[in-house]
Amino acid sequence: MEQRLTIITLGVYDLSESESFYSDILGWKKTNQSNDNIVFYNLNGFQMALYQIDKLAKDANMTCSNLDFRGFTLAYNTRTEKEVDLIFNELSEKGVSIIKKPEKAFWGGYSGYFADPDKNLWEVAYNPYLPLDKNGNIIDSEKIEICLAELSDLSKILELQKEAYVQEAEIYNDFNIQPLTQNIDSLKIEWQKGIVIKAEKNGHIIGSVRAELVDNICKIGKLIVKPGFQNQGIGKSLMIEIEKVFDNCSTYELFTGDRSDKNLNLYRKLGYVDFKTEQIDDNLKLIYLQKRNNAVA
Fold it and tell me: Where do the CATH 3.40.630.30 domains begin and end in the chain?
């Protein structure tokens, strides 16, 4: 391992209170990576994170009541997944206590934990969304680019779609919904007939939306944002961009399930209003929303 540090994560009991302390009292500026579950602050070449203490303990396969859990973790980020495995193999051969073997993480990376002789926890992680410079320092790259998706992007967008829609499937207890069963050929047809937009950060696709013009109505569908990047305004930015692309239409129209509260809240904040419902089965009712394009009204 190189002699460096990437992230210090503090386990906190009240995330809102802790965020207010660092942001409002100390005047620190949180990064755009921050969301309702975790808050990041850029420091001098590395980051400090605030994370609910019980969730932090669980991530390291520990509990808050465990006397060996210190309430914080230190992170060492690598440039590849392979490097994570190499480090853990070397540590294991040297008799280091491995707390959690490397595995795929829910936020899209790959990580594991080991402990030093005093039980301080180190996470070794590969995070494709957090670039490092040649010295291992975090590159402060907050910019997210939103642009038209190309044919070569579709496989990644489909992969992201299936990852993002697991949340919807869980809400309705139905894992056979079309976004999870759609194949690449079907997506290519949608791309040919309409417009697909992507959101990229550091060369990785983290969001997308698509739309098609039908009888002068812009029909918007499959707004997706990668888990871990949600609640950062990316979905809103994608919606604004797709509306700009179809700025000559008379109306924008979309639909979502009646229990998809986050979707409904976003669309209504953007000016969409309910105009009809459709009962699909006993478990699912769709709510259709629309917004007049005032620019051509």
Answer: 145-292
